[in-house]
Amino acid sequence: MLLCYINGQFVSQESAKLPVTDLIIQRGVGVFEVIATYNSRPLLLTPHLERLKASADSAKIKFNLDLNNLKNIIREGIKRAGGEVRVKVYLTGGDSFDELTGEFINPRLFILFEQLEVPSQEQYEKGVTLEPVAYGRKDPTVKSVDYRSSYMISQPDAYEVLYCPDGEITETGHSSFFLVVNNKLVTAPLSRVLKGTTRQAILEIAKREGIIIEERCPLWSELAEAGEAFITGSSKKVVPVVKVGNIKIGDGKPGALTRRIYDLYIKHIENWLE
After folding, report:
1. Fewer C-beta within 10 Å: the chain N or C terminus?
2. What are the CA-CA distances from residue 183 to residues 213, 256, 258 (Å)?
3. What are the DSSP calls for 194-213, one per residue?
4. pLDDT tens by residue, 241-262
């Protein structure tokens, strides 16, 4: 199950190696994507790879990969791994930085294929708690390998951190965040957060269903009066949030709109399989 595609071939993860000279090791220079499968097919594959390219471009990592070829490699890896798979695609900084162009000119590609881990049934049914932190990610538009801040959890029951800079709420450590305020779906704009692939699918569903959407940062002051909240992501899909820090969301139970959106996403998930 634990496969790695590196240097043009599939090998076990245990035998995969990167040189210590790679800047992903020395300076944390690299971008990545995590792609989940559903019925052994990659979910939102094209948006993920397009986002990988956008992250690489923003980070000045030269992107010389053919997307169709990359898709074929991912599909082959999923087939070899078997079952439901989490695919982690990495593009490193490589060994070279061109001071004239400001680019990392020789990146390395490696792809990990692992067993897919999803939230528990209890988390879907009872919801999760988020731990608020008073800062945000340094560059939210780039899916960089620097995720250290997302692991700075001190609240024992917290599922993820929730970035809350200056009284605004942007996203969580690993997910997009949605707050239901006066029956409106409020989520931070793309100028402030990573372009979540599942986030986009949920917005498409909401628009089709006539749910009012506000793309603005939810406010910390709105949490106590909000009716519901949830997070979205490739592996987790739609997970209800029932508490942020010590603040209970709504009645402290997953809400009807969250369940409706989850059900609609699963019902139409074939639309996003490739």
Report:
1. N
2. 9, 11, 11
3. ---HHHHHHHHHHHHTT--E
4. 999 999 999 999 999 999 999 9
